[in-house]
Structure prediction request, 218 residues.
Amino acid sequence: MEDAIEVILQDDSKVLPTTRSHPLVSACTGVVLTGLYGVWSLFALPGFRRIPWNLKVPYLPSSKDQTLNTMKLLEGRTGRLADLGSGDGRLVFAASSAGFRCTGFEINSILVSYSRNKARWRGLPSSQATFVKKDFWKIDLSPYNNVTAFLSPEVMGVLGEKLLKELPDDARVIACRFPFPDWPRQSSAGSGLDQTFAYDIRNVRSHLRKLSNTACVE
Ligand SMILES: C[S@@+](CC[C@H](N)C(=O)[O-])C[C@H]1O[C@@H](n2cnc3c(N)ncnc32)[C@H](O)[C@@H]1O
Prediction:
């Protein structure tokens, strides 16, 4: 019996040769992956140390369709616009060409410099497009009647509370890809990963008031 098992094991080792990689190859792979992570985190995460873990959102640029969908939901609107986490500035540039006075808040200094240079290169005056290197959680957003946010599902609930406290009644908020969990949307554009959602703050407040009134009656 033992002989039979040995024969099977010997046969298996022939059929399924062990693919143990050379230690040097493993070490090199480790070094390359660590290096790639270092480069990625340099561009995607600087300035994040002071932000709590649950509110960290890395850089990921909007797609062309996502930007177009955002602009569709802003049609007919004017005034000041804040992009929360402006990345390379693409949403700010699209909104400023539609006539908005835009401010992009961005924590990543490399992306802020890139956006500022691009704005200068395009000849945009700061009244049309400004990039501020600041944590948007610490900014009073009450001067803005338009807000765009492409962030992450984890932060949308907390962000909703901040916006409800600060924004004027006539403000519109566009959430890119990730909707607010408890807000009734006004409309949406696109589908899948490029979908964007529009919310009018007056309607959101009145919906949430009705909800809390019915909860009190019950
Ligand atoms: C998913 S990217 C979106 C970039 C850009 N809005 C776009 O649509 O292409 C999110 C951006 O938010 C920035 N960010 C994350 N948390 C931030 C914070 N607390 N304050 C300012 N910027 C922040 C990140 O650095 C990143 O560039």
